[in-house]
Amino acid sequence: MPNDSAAKSPRQRPNRRLLMTSALLLIALGTPAAVTGQWVRGTLVEQGTGMPIEGAAIVALDPDDRRLAWTLTDASGRFFFQLMTGGSFSIRADRIGHTSTRSGPLEVGAADTLVYRMEAPLDPIQLRGLTVERSSRDCRIRPEEGVATARVWEEARKALEAAAQTSRRGIYQFMVRRHERELDSRGRKVLKETSRIDRRFQTTPFKSLEASKLIEEGFVRPNGAGFFYYAPDADVLLSDEFLDSHCMKLREGDGEDEGLLGLDFEPTGDRSVPDISGTLWLEPVSAKLQRLEFRYENLGYSVGRAPIGGTVVFAGLPNGTWFVTNWAIRMPNLVEERTPLTSISGGLSTRSTIRVVGIHEEGALVLQVRNARGDIVVEAGAGTITGVVVGEDDESPVSDALVSVWITGQQAITGSDGLFRLGSLGDGTYDLLVTHPSLTSLGHGGELTPVRAVSGEVTSVRLTLPSEKRILEEVCVGPGPDRGGIIAGWVKHSETDEPIGDASVFMTTTKFMIFGGDEGLLARKSGVEALSRDDGFFIYCGTTVEADIDIEVTAEGMKPWKGVVKMPHKGYVAHVTVRLEPKRNDP
Question: Are strands 113-120 and 38-46 parallel, antiparallel or unpaired?
Answer without folding.
Answer: parallel
